[in-house]
Write a structure and sequence with these properties.
This protein is mainly α. The chain is 71% helix and 3% strand. It has a two-stranded antiparallel sheet. The two termini are 42 Å apart.
């Protein structure tokens, strides 16, 4: 293999890289507009053409989205998230949920092995939110608390790649997961709360943690299989 001569990074690449860092660090949050063009030209000390080329590159990568009359909006927090989102758009919901739940199974096992006192505290707080929502029969609040619990389990795995993958898949699937939960209404809240999984992680019982994830994975698959004729299923297939 021949060695190629090194080339200077173009101004466009430099600006695009800095903008990507601003997005990844949360300085430019997802869903928010980036600063006005004139302001950015001054900040980066570049021409309008250079700035627009950098923005165009990030739009192509899926990090930014330009909307007529609304400016340029941050669409994803990282290139990885944008790539995952594109894959999810081409896959059906059943396949994507299988991947998400496979990640949860691995996370549960690792969390049971590696959880620390801070992880337990966060898990306890998310479990309390689940129980509070259940007592109030607040469906929306329960879904939000349940997602927080799953994210806390993944965080307790202390595997950064697993955490990043799960975060991006969950964000991309957020709407469809809520719709999927609605398919199961009215919910048996006590059955839906993952108390046994929490206790398995607390006891560092890896086998029981995996068993619990497999159990609700099977339940989700049955829900999808049984509800294929519903209008929500048709909408969910678009993801």
């Amino acid at each position: 293999m021949s060695i190629k001569k090194a080339t200077r990074i173009s101004l466009v690449d430099q600006v695009a890289t800095q903008m990507e860092q601003l997005i990844e660090t949360g300085t430019w949050p997802v869903g928010e507009k980036i600063p006005p063009e004139m302001e950015l030209m001054v900040e980066f000390d570049v021409s309008r053409n250079t700035l627009r080329e950098a923005v165009r590159a990030l739009v192509h990568a899926g990090l930014l989205e330009t909307k007529q009359g609304s400016g340029t909006i941050v669409r994803s927090s990282s290139s990885l998230g944008a790539a995952i989102h594109r894959h999810i758009e081409r896959a059906n919901l059943f396949e994507t949920l299988e991947v998400r739940l496979a990640l949860e199974r691995e996370a549960a096992q690792k969390a049971a092995e590696r959880r620390n006192d801070q992880d337990i505290k966060i898990l306890q707080e998310s479990m309390k939110k689940c129980w509070d929502a259940a007592k109030n029969s607040d469906h929306i609040q329960f879904i939000e608390a349940d997602i927080l619990f799953h994210k806390a389990v993944v965080q307790a795995s202390h595997n950064q790649m697993l955490i990043d993958l799960y975060e991006h898949i969950t964000d991309a699937l957020n709407t469809s997961v809520q719709d999927l939960t609605m398919l199961r209404a009215p919910l048996d809240y006590e059955k839906e709360i993952h108390q046994e999984l929490y206790e398995a992680i607390l006891a560092q019982d890896t086998d029981q943690a995996v068993k619990n994830v497999n159990s609700y994975m099977d339940e989700l698959k049955r829900t999808l299989t049984n509800k294929k004729g519903s209008h929500i299923w048709g909408e969910m297939q678009q993801y």
